[in-house]
Amino acid sequence: MNSRQRRGVILLVLSVLCALAAFAGVLVVIGDVNSKVGAEVVAYRAKGDIPPYSPLTAGQFEEVKIPKRWLSDTAVTDLGALKDKIALTALKKGSLLQGDMFVDKPQLQPGEQEIAIMIDAATGVAGKITPGAKVNILGTFKGKKPTDPDVSLVMVANARVINVGRLTPLEKDGDKKGPAEAVPITFALNTKDTQRVAYAESFAEHVRLALVAPGTDSAVNPGDRMYTLEGDK
Fold first, then answer.
1. What pLDDT, on the 0 to 100 scale, is given for residue 189?
2. CA angle centred on 118, ends 114 and 119, rounded to 5°
3. For 42-73, how does the pLDDT look when each residue is reduced to its tens digit (9 = 90+)?
4. C-alpha span between 188 and 45 (Å, rounded)
5. Given this model, what pLDDT does residue 31 score?
6. Tens digit of pLDDT for each residue in 87-104?
7. Residue 99's CB: how many other CB atoms inside 10 A?
8. Cα 182 vs. chain centroid, distance in angstroms?
9. Which domains does the chain have, with CATH numbers?
10. 28 CB contacts (<8 Å, ≥6 apart)?
11. Which of 105-119, 128-142, 171-185, 191-205 is least confident?
């Protein structure tokens, strides 16, 4: 072996040693990162914006992997937790799903029925009514005769809200005045109260909601159920 060949062999050996040293360095860095980051676990984030109080489904979320040590205790790692749940707040696209972002969907009790009506967004306690809330449903009626006073009636007291829909534009007939937008709100009511609400929606000049303070479940006094301007004098 001549001197040129020896130099070639030495350079080859040095190249191999350098490559091994570099590889060992990479392994050390990876090991250090893994020791700091730890194992990854599955979490879920929203694929798009989700409005508040809307039902949640697995299809609204996508799987992501996050280091376990960086994941909060409230993070959801099983989409089975979404069964019969609704969003408690608005969820933005990319939001990591947390257990405090949703609540149980209100359910019908024995003897109750669902009825949904459109409520003027401006006068129906806009933005404050949520599933599970209690409201008084009021209807205002014109007098049957020109000489009869107009009347405001509490049609149903302490009606339980089980769903709040999205803001919906309303179509108007001709020059008829009315709200431009309304929100469909679903109630859980007994048969008689369901009929009262249906009557009010069909024949009342306006139907409005009055939010009841939490914990208040007493019936409206008979003298407070009907109001006329003449009777207030």
1. 94
2. 115
3. 889 999 998 877 888 999 999 988 887 777 88
4. 32
5. 57
6. 888 889 998 898 888 888
7. 12
8. 18
9. 40-104 (3.90.1210.10), 113-232 (no CATH)
10. none
11. 171-185
Query: How far apart (Å, rounded) are the C-alpha atoms in residues 141 and 204?
Result: 5
Distances (CA, A) of 181 to 118, 168, 171, 206: 9, 5, 9, 14
Task: Identify the weakest region by mean pLDDT among 68-82, 116-130, 206-220.
Answer: 116-130
Q: Which residue type is seen at 196?
A: R
HSE (CB half, 13 Å, CA atoms) of 109? 9
3-class DSSP assignment, residue 174: coil
Please, which residues bridge with residue 63 across strands?
44
Q: Which two tokens stand for residue 183?
A: 């929100």
What is the Cα–Cα distance from 172 to 179, expressed in whole angstroms? 9
Tokens of 149: 């006073």
